[in-house]
Write a structure and sequence with these properties.
By secondary structure, the protein is an alpha/beta fold. The chain contains 16 helices and twelve strands.
């Protein structure tokens, strides 16, 4: 999807902030939070809750080993991003001034392969070339952990992971036949499978729940800001949390909002793809969290560390202060 076209759709709702506090949101142009952010702006929920959300879409390329959104936050050019909490722990352990203050959802992906693939489940990965955005990507870490736990092998050793560097590059790698399958992020999976000839072999969200050993939804990605922003603008973060709760309720209840999202933000204005993404988003999103939720996230991390090892995660612990939940205001 053309980044400029999506940004123009957002800019149509970037009215004057007035004297409201501003929160600079920087999100990937092909990530699922853009659906929620566009709708929040479209409905004016940021202003309704007393703040101004400035949304700019950026590339999903890597900068110095970090995703672009992480680099923007750490460089002081953003106040709000989303990444998975394993990456948050890794960057915070290395001294990054970042903190998770609200959940987003189970933002994992799925293994996608040609329809005639010989890969039917996790047990079949050995001997195949598997495309990943990067080897420290959460999808690959989760797959490695599940293979080690349930099938007794590590696909990082028995298969060949091939790094694409971006989600766009990952899809191109699949189309060009450079790999046997890819671990693509969930919002992009329907665009690939609905247009064929590809299928989703398995969703990584099943792995999350299986490893977490709970029926409760465990958020993998959270909204982040800097410690300094949260300290100075706690009320702004709380206002965002309230607006987020409202927009999630609307996106769960109102199919019509998704018709506009499909038109403005998706690569293919195809009703079947829009419907698949809509239902996937509703199954993925986490509206709020509490101490029990965070305990579950920490338990999942410990399970991943014990199975895949600290080297696979890139960090051996969740540093103190990584999670600082705020109450909606």
């Amino acid at each position: 999807m053309n980044v400029g076209r999506q940004q123009r759709a957002l800019d149509a709702h970037h009215d004057d902030p007035g004297d409201r506090p501003v929160m600079r949101a920087r999100f990937e142009h092909n990530g699922s939070p853009r659906y929620m952010l566009y709708t929040m702006k479209r409905l004016g929920l940021d202003h309704e809750h007393g703040f101004h959300l400035d949304v700019q879409l950026v590339s999903d390329e890597l900068e110095g080993g970090m995703e672009t959104v992480e680099a923007r936050l750490q460089d002081g050019e953003a106040d709000l991003i989303d990444i998975d909490y394993i990456s948050t722990a890794r960057e915070r352990a290395e001294g990054a001034n970042i903190v998770a203050f609200h959940p987003y959802g189970r933002t994992v992906g799925g293994l996608v392969a040609p329809e005639d693939t010989a890969i039917e489940d996790l047990a079949d990965l050995s001997g195949h070339r598997i495309g990943v955005v990067r080897r420290l990507d959460k999808n690959w870490i989760l797959v490695r952990a599940a293979c080690r736990q349930y099938h007794g092998f590590d696909p990082d050793e028995t298969a060949t992971p091939v790094e694409a560097g971006s989600k766009v590059g990952l899809t191109e790698m699949l189309h060009d036949g450079e790999v046997d399958a890819v671990l693509q992020f969930w919002p992009i999976v329907p665009e690939i499978t609905e247009r064929g000839p590809y299928e989703e072999v398995f969703p990584v969200s099943d792995i999350v729940q299986r490893l977490a050993e709970t029926d409760n939804r465990v958020p993998v990605s959270t909204f982040l800001t800097s410690d300094s922003f949260l300290d100075a603008h706690t009320d702004t973060a709380r206002r965002f949390a309230a607006a987020y709760g409202d927009v999630v309720d609307r996106l769960i209840a109102e199919d019509a909002l998704w018709d506009e999202i499909g038109e403005k933000l998706m690569s293919y204005d195809d009703p079947e793809i829009v419907a698949a993404v809509r239902e996937g988003w509703r199954a993925m999103v986490v509206r709020g969290w509490n101490n029990e939720t965070i305990d579950g996230m920490e338990q999942l991390f410990e399970h991943l560390r014990s199975v895949a090892g600290a080297d696979a995660l890139g960090v051996d612990r969740i540093p103190e202060g990584t999670f600082r939940p705020v109450d909606p205001i």
